[in-house]
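Session log. Operator J.P. requested a structure for one protein chain; no other inputs attached. Running the standard single-chain path with token output.
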Amino acid sequence: MGDHTLAIFAAELILLLLVGRVLGEGMSRIGQPALFGQLLAGVLLGPSVFGLLLPEWRAVVFPDDKTLKTMIDAVSQIGILLLLLLTGMETNLALMQRRRRAVVASSLSGIAVPFACGMALAYALPSEVVPGHENPLVTALFLGTALAISSVKIVAMTLMEIGVIRRDIGQLILATAILDDTVAWIIIAVISGIATSGTVDLKTVGASVAGTFLFLAFCLTVGRRLVAWLIVWVNDHMTIEVPVITAILVVMLALALTTELIGVHTALGAFIAGILVGQSPILTEHIENELRGFIFAFFAPVFFAVAGLGMDLRTLMDPTLLLFTLAVILVASVGKFGGALIGGRLGGLTTWESIALATGLNARGSTEVIIASIGLAMGALSRELYTMIVAMAVVTTMVMPPMLRWVMAKVPLGEDETKRLDTEEAEHAQSLPKMERALVYVDDSPNGRMAARLAGLFAARQQVLTTVLEANAKKGPEQAGSGEHLAEAARLTNQQHQTAHSPVTTRSGLHDDALQHEIAHGYDIVFVGLERPIDPVSRRFEQRLQDLVNAFDGPVAIAINGAGAAGPVDVPLDILLPTSGTADARLATEMALSLAHASKGAVAALHVFQPQEDTAVLRGRARRPGISLLVDAHRLGKRSGVPVKGLTATNAKPETEIRRALHGGRFDLIVVGTSLRQGETKFLGPRTASLLRGIRTPALVIAR
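Structure written below.
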């Protein structure tokens, strides 16, 4: 077989991937998780179907060869680590800060009751089901853990599918499932230590527990900052393809190795690595999408199919073993439901909220399959017991969605919950909350100092990572790193932006295209402060700014300090905001409210009606869209805690009325949203250019 090992290995992967993806697609189309199809693929290719119908062919494709089993098992084990990495990235620890009492009580009670029931059931199982492990306690602990916990991925997916993940009880269910998963991997770590030592050695167990908590304490404090710094550094300094993905995989493997060395399972290290990566200040959505495609295209189908290969449904043909399988499903369901229900009531939930919580947590899925696979590989579970656990995971997960949908209809919406949902719905349509990183491109002019101050206010409000880049007029867009104005810009930005999670940094470039090189690192918005950003006659951008807008696809915030006016200082900003109903004006509205909130200022929203909209006959109907824009700005301001005053005027040239509003000098800043015209290069439209020529008030132009 040595000459054909690689060919057979490739054939195994082809079958596992192809059958798993096809059956996963079928499951998705009927509203079930795709992993069920991938598990079913393994069952069909295993001894239950393929081995029963075509034993000779199965012996060719899946021979009893140690080398091949090791190769396919290696791919499967990497799949486990990657799935746990992704699960950790999707874990939101902030959820557990809300209603901590209910989360902790529900999770601990929901784990303790089925855990105890599972251990008792393990000692009641017949001897032919229990493996010949030297310590029966390990088997009991594995079974108790498998019956006790929920699958956060399945819970989250089910909550999204039935449309309740944003409800209070939905977030409570998800937070409890997150805590369940976290506790589960700590328990598995301890059990693995017991299984490795072969005995219940209190000294060994104590060392494993102590090592686990020291590992967690380090990772969730110093480790969090180190991983965040590493991701930013790799993204900004390495030019090879997908360097951040490589860094994440190295972090995952390093933490998995660390947990292995301290005597616990590698699963805990991979899960914690995912949590740390998920809290990175930049690129989280981009990283998750790339990893998700990488994992779900190859490793997940192989892992779940290999897990299915380990199932032998012929086990269930034995009436006694079938009866015990039903007992496992019953104990798991009743134990988890009862424990979570008790915990919910102790945590202060209503009866129907507690029932919904208990129902939502009664879904196992991928987590149990991973735990069962670990137990089977360690010899703590027999193939028969492994099949029972996987069958339990499948049954409980398939039953949960329709039950939860029915129960959630009984849980009423409270007044506070309704307001929160309305607010979140509005924020979901906004652009600024999705931004993670800002670039500040400035020189030593008044415009540069103004841009640095405004960028600091924005970054402090939105909690984004900020980088200050020097614009050197003599040498082109490069960073010497020693210019006084660069240090001053960083100081001004940092003066407003004092957060530990999103620090202000500066960049040093050694080549003429430093600006384009920096933009390639991934930014959501660029603040620009140059001495003469726009030519007053041609309306064209200064060359450095022209290069920026041509290279950058996102919004550019251009600071224009007015005709010799002083820039904004650390006082509340009174901002004028022209509204027009366009997407660019909407982004300007968000920016104005963000700056006003950070400076404790106020906003005046001005809408200029066209004369034809102001006739006596059509006054009410024609003015309705414009008034609705002012009402919308007022609502956004109320949600942001910013007072918004509505102003109206009528003129065929809106820029004339905007200048008139600014003439009295009562505004510190005007924020204007505009679309760039597209020709050979990008440039400002005539109305925006005309407005900027005729005002002395500092302006921030949001152009894209």
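Operator note: The chain has two domains: 2-411, 432-703.
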